[in-house]
């Protein structure tokens, strides 16, 4: 879930970063191509399935019909073998041949009967009777094709015929074989059957009928009209007859894998679609095959048209989207450039683009806003800035005489109490204070402000005593680099010394400067006399409303607190917060919080005036 959300966030970030013209193109492509692709894919899939099902149904009917016809022929020829075995002359001839009695007249009579059978059935090419002595008589039809006399025993031995016939246990056995040296497309089909004496049931010979394979070829020719379709009859791993071209090795592997199947079995590969139907009566198979590219020729045409349609849609969509994006981008680009100028301080309006739509209204409102901003800058903003700068300078000038007066008073006490021995140290500290105080910079690093306060306390220690006034400073390294308004902390320290610690006679001041929660936190804490809740609330209300304090509060706060609060509000506004807490006889804590972002922005904005 988290990974998916991360991918979605990255996609949204990328989408928001690309230009509007690319977004127009993306939307147009999505609206056009997704429906086309979906319709094309679904149509292609449905058409393919329909063609495939139609072909399978048609082929199944064809090979089932072919199987029925072949089975009928098989049964018909099996009956002929039965008719031959019913001839009484057959057994007389076999007995005389076995006893080696003259049987010439019987053979001549029996041969005439066999010839009548052949003439009445064109599907029979040759009939042969073989005794234990390997041969008795063979009768062929009048065709020029080979007969049994040319096959047995030259190509098929009597022993082989006997093994074949024995497998039938007295029933006809169909056998297919390729004669050595012959073309495999013209195999030999034999019906072999044992001849047993009807009285003694002893083996007397073998009946062999050679079948004309043209009967199977005619059956296929009548049923298959598709020129690209191939059909074949397979028996004993031999192709009896084949029409068309097919992968014989692939077909042979397929027939070996489906020996236990009964119905039509369909096999689909990248090259062809093959249907196989077993003929259980003789353990043969009828196989049909058609190339996939031929079957789906019309589907390929549909695919080509879909590609052409997608290409045309791409061109039309791209041109339309580009025209629309250019129409939208021109006013948007004008607005973007104008806003950049406003950001840099150049408040200029946008030329009228003669638009009446939403973009035209946006440009009109933008021009109106810029005109009002120009008016505000010229009539109000500059006036407020001037007043703000004057007020800040006035507040700071209030501090300087008051500050110098206290220092001079300390030097006076030092001269009266200690003579001139420590005046050098005081003068050095005073020079540091005056150096900072007389600087024209409005903002100083917090580190310098703390050094200034340290020098200030070192001078005050002359008045209070080294052990009676302590200063502790704790500051983050990061906090020391921030630039804050000059003399922002010193008035707070001065209040702590003169209004918290001096009435008590001794005490400690703690200054803490930290950065956390994206804020600079400045804490000034003393352990002086503190103040009661009533007085604390009055001071808080006065600071919040920026009111002048009455004489009592002025004597306590002097000028420092109000000046600090006013400066914070003028410089940082709502990004700065001032708070004061006090407990009687425990001390007072003052805390200042300023957003780090506001500190950096105010300083950068005032660089040109520093």
TrEMBL record:
The Swiss-Prot or TrEMBL record annotates one GO molecular function as:
phosphorelay sensor kinase activity
Please give the start and end residues of each transmembrane region: 24-44, 304-324
Which cellular component, as a GO term, is one annotated location?
Answer: membrane
Q: Could you tell me which InterPro entries the record lists for this protein? A: Bact_2-comp_sensor_kinase, HAMP_dom, HATPase_C_sf, HATPase_dom, Sig_transdc_His_kin_internal
Top-level taxon: Bacteria
CDD domains xref list? HAMP (cd06225)
Q: What broad class describes the main subcellular location of this protein?
A: membrane
Subcellular location, in the record's words? Answer: Membrane
**Keyword Aminoacyl-tRNA synthetase set for record:** no
Q: Which residues form the HAMP domain?
A: 326-378
Q: What is this protein called?
A: Sensor histidine kinase
Q: Which UniProt keywords apply?
A: Kinase, Membrane, Phosphoprotein, Transferase, Transmembrane, Transmembrane helix
């Amino acid at each position: 879930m988290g990974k998916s959300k991360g991918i979605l966030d990255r996609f949204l970030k990328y989408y928001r970063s690309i230009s509007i013209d690319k977004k127009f193109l993306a939307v147009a492509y999505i609206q056009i191509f997704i429906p086309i692709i979906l319709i094309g894919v679904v149509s292609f899939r449905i058409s393919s399935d329909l063609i495939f099902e139609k072909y399978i149904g048609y082929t199944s009917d064809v090979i089932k019909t072919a199987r029925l016809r072949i089975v009928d022929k098989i049964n018909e020829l099996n009956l002929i073998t039965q008719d031959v075995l019913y001839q009484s002359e057959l057994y007389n001839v076999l007995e005389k041949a076995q006893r080696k009695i003259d049987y010439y007249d019987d053979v001549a009579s029996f041969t005439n009967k066999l010839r009548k059978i052949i003439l009445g059935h064109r599907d029979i090419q040759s009939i042969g009777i073989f005794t234990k002595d390997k041969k008795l008589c063979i009768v062929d039809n009048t065709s020029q094709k080979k007969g049994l006399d040319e096959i047995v025993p030259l190509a098929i031995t009597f022993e082989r015929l006997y093994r074949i016939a024995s497998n039938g246990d007295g029933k006809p056995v169909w056998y297919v074989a390729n004669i050595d040296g012959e073309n495999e497309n013209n195999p030999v089909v034999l019906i072999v059957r044992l001849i047993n004496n009807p009285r003694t049931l002893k083996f007397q010979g073998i009946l062999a009928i050679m079948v004309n394979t043209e009967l199977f070829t005619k059956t296929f020719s009548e049923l298959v009209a598709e020129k690209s379709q191939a059909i074949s009859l397979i028996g004993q791993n031999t192709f009896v007859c084949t029409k068309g071209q097919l992968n014989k090795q692939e077909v042979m592997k397929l027939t070996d894998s489906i020996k236990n199947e009964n119905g039509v079995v369909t096999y689909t590969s990248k090259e062809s679609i093959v249907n196989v139907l077993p003929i259980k009566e003789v353990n043969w198979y009828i196989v049909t095959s058609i190339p996939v590219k031929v079957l789906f020729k019309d589907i390929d045409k549909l695919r080509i048209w879909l590609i052409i349609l997608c290409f045309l849609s791409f061109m039309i969509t791209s041109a339309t989207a580009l025209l629309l994006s250019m129409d939208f981008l021109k006013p948007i680009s004008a607005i973007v450039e104008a806003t950049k100028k406003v950001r840099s301080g150049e408040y200029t309006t946008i030329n009228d683009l003669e638009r009446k739509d939403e973009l035209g209204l946006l440009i009109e409102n933008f021009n109106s806003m810029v005109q009002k901003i120009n008016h505000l800058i010229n009539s109000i903003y500059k006036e407020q800035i001037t007043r703000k700068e004057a007020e800040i300078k006035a507040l700071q000038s209030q501090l300087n005489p008051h500050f110098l007066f206290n220092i001079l008073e300390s030097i006076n006490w030092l001269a009266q109490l200690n003579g001139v021995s420590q005046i050098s140290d005081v003068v050095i500290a005073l020079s540091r204070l005056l150096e900072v105080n007389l600087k024209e910079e409005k903002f100083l690093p917090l580190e310098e402000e703390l050094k200034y306060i340290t020098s200030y306390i070192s001078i005050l220690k002359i008045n209070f005593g080294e052990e009676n006034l302590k200063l502790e400073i704790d500051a983050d390294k990061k906090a020391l680099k921030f630039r804050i308004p000059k003399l922002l902390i010193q008035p707070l320290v001065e209040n702590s010394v003169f209004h918290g610690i001096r009435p008590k006679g001794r005490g400690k001041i703690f200054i803490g400067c930290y950065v956390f929660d994206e804020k600079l936190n400045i804490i000034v804490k003393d352990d002086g006399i503190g103040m009661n809740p009533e007085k604390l609330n009055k001071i808080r209300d006065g600071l919040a409303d920026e009111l002048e304090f009455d004489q009592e509060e002025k004597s306590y706060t002097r000028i420092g607190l109000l000046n600090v609060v006013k400066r914070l509000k003028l410089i940082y506004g709502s990004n700065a917060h001032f708070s004061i807490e006090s407990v009687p006889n425990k001390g007072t804590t003052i805390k200042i919080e300023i957003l780090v972002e506001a500190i950096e922005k105010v300083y950068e904005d005032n660089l040109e005036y520093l």
